[in-house]
Amino acid sequence: YRTLPLPAALWGGVEQTWNITAETIGGLAEMIAGQRGTEDLGGPLRIAQLSGQVAELGLGSLITFIAILSVNLGLINLFPIPVLDGGHLLFYLAEAIRGRPIPPRAQEYGFRAGLALLAGLFIFATWNDLTHIGLFRWVAGLIG
């Protein structure tokens, strides 16, 4: 890490945020296209594990890790899934195009589908986390 004048530091922050965003979108696109496995998808357990590992590297590394998590969380929040802010923006866009609001029942179904999608993603990420830490191998070792 190096000391920079304020304008250079601000610009560096913008560049880093852009790079993290581009890498995240690229990684997700690769997963969707099947070019990258989903084992890299981590949830709360993996984040906790990585946080501990990064904290051992020092305060600067921990702050960088927190910044990366923050950018990723903000980006995910903009996905066009009705429960998230991006979903609300999608409804606003549909309202602007149609000239009238989306019917409440349609919004409710959208929110339910979005919540189901997020719940499924959370369960999948937690499954990946448990696999990554070896829980299933450990249980299999106990049984057989």
Explain this structure.
This protein is mainly α and 144 residues long. The chain has one domain (6-143). It has six helices and no strands. The chain has helices at 6-33, 44-55, 59-77, 85-98, 104-132, 135-143. Helix 1 (6-33) crosses helix 3. It is flat, with a radius of gyration of 20 Å. The mean pLDDT is 93.
Secondary structure: elements and pairs:
Blueprint: H1 6-33, H2 44-55, H3 59-77, H4 85-98, H5 104-132, H6 135-143
Helix pairs in contact: 1-3
List the keywords.
mainly alpha, 144 residues, single chain
Q: Strand share of the residues?
A: under 5%
Distance between the termini: 50 Å
Radius of gyration: 20 Å
Percentage of residues assigned to helices: over 70%
* pLDDT < 50 stretches: none
Backbone structural class? mainly alpha
The rough form would be described as flat
Order of helices and strands: HHHHHH
**Number of folding domains?**
1
Main β-sheet, in a few words? none
The whole-number mean of residue pLDDT values reads 93
How many strand units? 0
Number of helices: 6
